[in-house]
Amino acid sequence: MKKKVLYIEDNEQNLYLIQFILEKNGYEFSSATDGREGIELAVRSKPDLILLDIQLPRMDGYTVARHLRAHPDLAQVPIVAVTSYAMAGDRDKALASGCSGYIEKPINPDTFIQQMEAHLGTPA
Amino acid sequence: MSGAVNHHKAYIPFLRPAPVFHPFRCLSFLLLLLITLPDLAHAVSRNVSVGIYENAPKVFTSTTGKPAGIFVEIIENIAKAEGWNLRYVPGTWAEGLDRLSRGEIDLMPDVAYTTERDRIYAFHKIPVLSVWSQVYARKGSGIQSLLDLNGKRIAALENTIQLETFTRLTNSFGLKFTLIPVPNYQTEFQMVADNRADAGLTNRLYGLMYARKYGLEDTPVMFDPAPFFFAAPKEKGDLLAVIDRHLAEMKKDPRSAYYAAMKRWTSDEVEFKLPAWLQVSALVLGSVLVMSVVGGFVLKHQVNARTAELALMNREMERRIDERTLTLKETNEKLRAALEDLEDAKERAEQADRLKSAFLATMSHELRTPLNSIIGFTGILQQGLGGPVNEEQKKQLAMVRKSSDHLLALISDVLDISKIEAGQLRVESETFHLAESIRKVEQAVRPLAEKKGLELYLDLSGDVGPVTGDARRVEQILFNLLSNSIKFTEQGSVTVRSRRDGDFLVTCVADTGIGIKEADLDRLFQPFQQIDTGLNRKYEGTGLGLSICKKLVELMGGTIRVESAPGRGTSFTFTLPVRPPGADGVAA
């Protein structure tokens, strides 16, 4: 059965890029363009992994991660931050908010799947 | 007057300027006669004529008509040892020099050396003495400095270095004075005392001895300490060698006639240590008591004079200290103002620095977003996920990919530097295996080395175990050093060595590449300092990598250094502590 990945991201090109890579690699892809929508979709669809942008409108990725973790159904779902935030402490902040991993933008298309799969099946 | 007849005695009356000593005069003459008799036995001896002029206490004629003074005592001592017959030719200073230049006398004492004189006369090498020149004036003249001499009548001996120096000195201050030439210092002091001159130039020795007698005082104007010699006509140079030999010997022995003469004529305290023969005779004649009474009197007199002189000097020093203190205060004020300006400038510079760092961080972040699309979609196309790609398209996509990877590397470096400068670069403190990191980076760069036909060696000692630090950053350092080495090496090899040294793991990346000039080594670790290899097109890069490596190593408590020579390869060595230096890893 296809694994489900939810990507919460407001940038269209980024969404399309990840969707393309994941679908070509046999994943079931869904997406949301802001935090609130993302959380609702996650609760509804119970994905196997959530990719999360940090620089989101209205509610930032850290807050989204905390909400996701707070939901009993989602507490065990791996959340991987995908962000171009690269200042001191960004990685720590993401992990402290409940993310299981961190992938820096720009992504490396050759290794992205491997990086993401490292978090699949290893619940946080 | 035969020199052989008065070796040690003529000084006695002059030791004491006052007539108090007359009782000794008869005594001394009596003894003089006695002890000089044996000297007549010298049958074969050389005649040496010596010029005499009046410049006590260096050289002068005593009140008994005998030559005396420091130069006389010294030459008589030498004459005695050498068996010379001294013949004194009295005259003025100028006459003495004239006679010397015509060869009428063999020696002229008390001649200061100048190159001009050296062309006319011969000099020996060891100076007899060094004396300061000084300006003397009537008591209460108010002359306190050179400037006070402007427009004054100055009495001085002509044709002396003293006068030459003084003229030069006053000229340099733009001062004018009326010169009153005098034949000797006695006349000079008399003229100053009689108000026919306002001040006189003399040497300090003469002044000390006679100023008070003429009611004069020394002014604070002192100048030109000059060495004085015997001078001889050019063809009589052999005498001078003998004088030098004796002077050298005498100067070695503190009990020699030289020191005795110097002490007698220049000491501020007047000593009453008389030659043994006189002491014995005096004892016999029972005059010790008289002598000591008189001596005490003179001593007291001299001490008083010296005390007054010291008090004067003290006042002068105090005045100078006050002046200097004032100057120092002003300088301090200026310094403080300058420091405040500097503080402001520093504040502005730091402000600008912070803005720059924030700007760089934002820019780096904003640049990453479009790169995500460029790199991502290029990758998709290269992988054939978007459909088949022909060979030409593959080649072109590879170029897009390579360029965007390079652009990403540049942005990452700029971001790292901006983090360092903003003090925001942090390193993790985790335990990891350095050997594993080295192998991992080696795997990553091996294709680059193989592509250039370079050997890549690892030489890891068994004691390279776990280390505490930031594995990702250590790998960044290793990757940077290794790719640098591969980039700058055209043939040969790149070797990574690592071993433990005490509390540190020492890792070295050495290559057989083009090397670096010594002059460039210092700049190597500074940001934005890409060394001009003339090959920049070939070896592109940001010039930031090494400064980042240095900062990272230091943040982890280690050091990095480089050794290189053009054509002899380069080796970078960095150390990492086995245990971290402190819990806090925030950049300074």
In short:
The complex is a heterodimer of chains A (124) and B (588). Chain A has 124 residues and is an alpha/beta fold.
What is the general shape of chain A? globular
Looking at how many chains there are and whether they match, the oligomeric state comes to heterodimer
Distance between the termini of chain B: 90 Å
The CATH architecture term of chain A is 3-Layer(aba) Sandwich
Arithmetic mean pLDDT of chain A: 89
Quote the distance from N terminus to C terminus of chain A.
Answer: 22 Å
Top-tier CATH class of the largest domain in chain B: Alpha Beta
Q: Beta-strand percentage of chain B? A: 15-25%
Helix content of chain B: 40-55%
Domains counted in the coordinates of chain B: how many? Answer: 4
> How would a crystallographer describe the biggest sheet of chain B?
7 strands, mixed
User: Mind telling me the C-alpha Rg of chain A?
Assistant: 13 Å
Q: CATH class of chain A, anyone?
A: Alpha Beta
Low-confidence stretches of chain A: none
